[in-house]
């Protein structure tokens, strides 16, 4: 993938056996993201050792690419001085994310060591709710004044460049930091040097409020293809920017979250979670499912007499329930994903429910017909085949209806549309499948029995 | 969201009643992405009308933001001249994506109208396989020569700027277009004007081959936080770049795809698909599921005699199957997502299977115990409760095992790990659930019956 040879061989898992110059060279010769992968193979105390010897400035770029867990575990092994220098050097949003992960004692200790301006900025960033634009933004944005000439603006950006996350978009603010315009570096270098920022800036500024849900911010950035999105407070004062690389992560994490919720998984679980943690995170969902499964089980018990008369029903009933569950999950997934991507408008939601029911009707008729034929061939009983067909149609309509309705209702209740929805939908299709099939069988029992088995 | 008022009111659905100046003003006053949303409300012939009157150059930005379907439907309503001008103006990757959607006759017609250089470029882009880096890249990248001074390089970029997708990363190539270095515009404006490109460029160039799967390219760009990724041919010659905005879409689409495959949905289905298309796309999966459900059904039929003896089993057996299905989906989803995000290394995959089985064992014991107690309270039969507990444990181990194993095997077979995996896993947990529960019940029938109902 990368054009230069990877120096993996230089750093071995868990032990530093190489001279420092070799380690340093290995870290220097690759992209910081790859250096972080190399670093992450060491124990936290060894990483701390490397940070102490090479100096925070030297390892900063790689350190910022380390997972928070590793960053957090490394800090206690560093000297006070190094911690302060390292934290001070970090970008404000990375710094806030890390500090947020620390326990309160360590947080307080650290805050007391920072200089006042840094402390205030950090405290401010820590106040934004977890999934808001504020929590993801960086305060290191490039800003310009409207009255500057293009030449002055370029000089200004040259000065700001080393400290800013991006200088490719520059934001034009007035004396009270109100956001009045936006300018790209491309616009700037293409303009005549004696022109002014005011003349070439775009006044059609699109921005997001600091408390906006980051998922919606991601949607906006995808819509506009922005490299960075300005974040403003409720008086339209610029407070930060969110950059495209944060959005890469947001889109990925939101998708994971939806997938997990659709599968009744806690969003905190990871493939690397310890076994007992996975057990603990999954069992509440299984208990909920147990509750809904008991309803289906109780439904079957209502028809014990029917089953006792004609035990073949017990082997056929899972077909209706199972296919209904699959159809319900199909409708559910299409609707959950469309809600997440903002593809369902408020006024169109009844139409969505109706369409899913119609798809259910047709697929129920189709699969039901095939299943009826199989039943006929297997048990030579046309009445049994008929009720199989009817039960499939009824249950697939229920599947389409609830597959669409459950996420729409959850969204209406301001909950995540995927939250536990598959459990409710399959509970309905299981119960519905058993009820329709066994209910019809009870109704037509005489006719079924006259055709014998 | 946006700071300026939205002029939605000016354009009404499906009919142009406003004077052209008003329409033009409405389109001009918003971001092209929003102008595209306004345009998309019209019928294709009306959009064509707007393009003809305002001119391709004027509407280009908004047109590029329109969904391909709308672009495609608009073209036949345009004059030949306008089509050629519009297509020529489009960015190469957008153009190729659009032309790919057209039917062959129209494609040929269009190709014959383009100038030779454009035609060759377009034909080249059309040859890359659908999900490869080549299919997503643009050929409008900024390039520099190593020997240029910084001042010359900046002048060069100023010249290239209007035609290039981004000038924030510039690629340094030799006479045969071999990629030898990379330079950001930030580096350039911070460097002394009399320095040379050679001196300040980074030689640690990370690039991707033109035939690399776009999903892997997205993973690389997320890893490095790149704004653009250079794409090279097999002789390391630069052929294009992929920009961050394409990656927004790739990450989103890949997530949708995985979610769809996990739910046994065809990836071509959309919430807006016509009903009969949804029926057609979903039914094959339902037929597959029907086949696997028949295995479970057949398993139950093997135990008809047991059920006839003790009909309560028919109402309890769905509990074991249902909970197993849920647990299997949990394991499956964790593993599928981890595979997609590259979190499972090849040597670690047996460990993953083992861990999922262990989680299954514990959750089976836990849920099984609760279910056993409920069974005891409901049916006052300790032997029934015991086999319920054992069947739950066995089935949950199967769930964990296959939930992990199926996607790992599919990946090994170079298939998508999510492809139909939920059908196989639930087939196994249904069949397993029925088999363990009814099998144990058959073994212990004497003891169960002595405790009566």
Automatic annotation (TrEMBL), chains A, B:
<feature type="transmembrane region" description="Helical">
    <location>
        <begin position="310"/>
        <end position="336"/>
    </location>
</feature>
<dbReference type="InterPro" id="IPR046342">
    <property type="entry name" value="CBS_dom_sf"/>
</dbReference>
<comment type="subunit">
    <text>Homodimer.</text>
</comment>
<feature type="domain" description="CBS">
    <location>
        <begin position="137"/>
        <end position="198"/>
    </location>
</feature>
<dbReference type="GO" id="GO:0046872">
    <property type="term" value="F:metal ion binding"/>
</dbReference>
<dbReference type="InterPro" id="IPR006668">
    <property type="entry name" value="Mg_transptr_MgtE_intracell_dom"/>
</dbReference>
<dbReference type="InterPro" id="IPR038076">
    <property type="entry name" value="MgtE_N_sf"/>
</dbReference>
<dbReference type="InterPro" id="IPR036739">
    <property type="entry name" value="SLC41_membr_dom_sf"/>
</dbReference>
<feature type="transmembrane region" description="Helical">
    <location>
        <begin position="384"/>
        <end position="410"/>
    </location>
</feature>
<dbReference type="GO" id="GO:0005886">
    <property type="term" value="C:plasma membrane"/>
</dbReference>
<dbReference type="InterPro" id="IPR000644">
    <property type="entry name" value="CBS_dom"/>
</dbReference>
<keyword id="KW-0479">Metal-binding</keyword>
<dbReference type="GO" id="GO:0015095">
    <property type="term" value="F:magnesium ion transmembrane transporter activity"/>
</dbReference>
<feature type="domain" description="CBS">
    <location>
        <begin position="201"/>
        <end position="257"/>
    </location>
</feature>
<dbReference type="Pfam" id="PF00571">
    <property type="entry name" value="CBS"/>
</dbReference>
<keyword id="KW-0472">Membrane</keyword>
<keyword id="KW-1133">Transmembrane helix</keyword>
<dbReference type="InterPro" id="IPR006669">
    <property type="entry name" value="MgtE_transporter"/>
</dbReference>
<feature type="transmembrane region" description="Helical">
    <location>
        <begin position="422"/>
        <end position="445"/>
    </location>
</feature>
<dbReference type="Pfam" id="PF01769">
    <property type="entry name" value="MgtE"/>
</dbReference>
<keyword id="KW-0460">Magnesium</keyword>
<dbReference type="Pfam" id="PF03448">
    <property type="entry name" value="MgtE_N"/>
</dbReference>
<feature type="transmembrane region" description="Helical">
    <location>
        <begin position="357"/>
        <end position="378"/>
    </location>
</feature>
<keyword id="KW-1003">Cell membrane</keyword>
<keyword id="KW-0812">Transmembrane</keyword>
<comment type="function">
    <text>Acts as a magnesium transporter.</text>
</comment>
<keyword id="KW-0813">Transport</keyword>
<comment type="similarity">
    <text>Belongs to the SLC41A transporter family.</text>
</comment>
<protein>
    <recommendedName>
        <fullName>Magnesium transporter MgtE</fullName>
    </recommendedName>
</protein>
<dbReference type="InterPro" id="IPR006667">
    <property type="entry name" value="SLC41_membr_dom"/>
</dbReference>
<feature type="transmembrane region" description="Helical">
    <location>
        <begin position="285"/>
        <end position="304"/>
    </location>
</feature>
<keyword id="KW-0129">CBS domain</keyword>
